[in-house]
Amino acid sequence: MASKSPIRVAVTGAAGNIGYAAIFRLASGAVFGPDQPVALNLIEVGPGLNALAGVVMELQDCAFPLLTDVVATGDLNEGFKDADWCLLIGAVPRKDGMERKDLLGINGKIFIGQGEAIARNAKKSVKVLVVGNPCNTNALIALRSAGNLPAENFFAMTRLDENRAKSQLAAKAGAHNSVVKNVAIWGNHSSTQYPDFTNALIGGKPATQVITDHAWLKETFVPDVQKRGAAVIKARGASSAASAANAALDTLRSLHFPTPAGDWHSVAVLSKGDYGISPGIMFGYPLRTKADGSWEIVQGLPIDAFSKEKIAITEKELLEERATASEALGLKL
Ligand code: NAX
User: Fold this and answer.
1) Beta carbon of 79 within 6 Å of any ligand 1 atom
2) Helix, strand, or coil here: 5?
3) Active site residues
4) Which end of the chain has the least Cβ crowding within 10 Å, N or C?
5) Residue ID of nearest Cα to ligand 1 atom 2
6) How is 277-315 classified by DSSP, letter by letter?
7) Has residue 136 got a pLDDT over 80?
8) Cα of 133 from ligand 1 centre, angstroms
9) Which residue, judged by its Cα, is nearest atom 5 of ligand 1?
10) What percentage of the chain reaches a pLDDT higher than 90?
């Protein structure tokens, strides 16, 4: 076995669709590398706990060389103990007739408890990625509940949107995904997100030069990326799971390793006012991870009038979500 000390990753909703698609790849070394041992703390609730017992058996049956320990639990204190990373996937889905406020209230309570338990039990250097929806505001609630843990270690996932945007730009340009770079997702992981084509590059050239059909970029690409989640639900009869797990693992990798020169990755972080965004909301930005593991928001990108208008819409939605969640939870977020 490799000699490095393991990275301990706590995963909530571990037996759910996204969790199931994520944890085997985590254990295989696909995220932190082939010489980095991993330990997993798998957290579930209710019937998910029975399914989790089966997931643990399957992990054993993989005999992963890098997997040093598996904890399976319904107890948050045990689940977040000594975690280096918390991947918060578990959340209550919106059901028919449920108002957004109800959803924010129900999930808000979950993320208060999880934020508190992370602060009590995880390493002080823990990093937290929220996937469970509404992920930006859930992440804000977890962060505000996590006492003195540094705000810069809390993230909400917009990477699935970035990956979707890259693949659509590549298809339109007749290029491979791998040459599409510098795609920023601004704002909320919701249908108001803004997938920014104006700063994107395809094969090193501005996407707006490679794709000359600007009406397509504005009127087809943007709404298609915004509504891609709903299109997958319609086709599959279930929400994105493998691609969401893949994006969560991409996010972990991108925050763990330095960002290659000239590129960035998209993730939501607590706004401090960069690009004129209201402080105190979890806002999707383009980030670069530095060699020491810290990160910075990419500065100085041109924001044209079209982008400004779209960014304002998603900012407004996040401010409203924060107000709604604050009211539902009786908290000042
Ligand atoms: P599933 O319903 O398949 O799985 C969720 C699992 O979480 C279940 O096993 C459930 O028992 C567990 N769970 C619920 N509450 C929990 C709690 N308090 N503690 C621990 N476990 C808990 O959903 P799945 O398809 O895996 O989706 C999970 C979440 O990801 C949903 O909120 C979904 O909306 C969200 N998504 C977020 C995306 C993003 O890009 N940020 C995209 C995909 C996905 O829609």
Assistant:
1) no
2) coil
3) 189
4) N
5) 16
6) PPTTSEEEEEEEE-TTS-EEEPP-----HHHHHHHHHHH
7) yes
8) 8
9) 16
10) 95
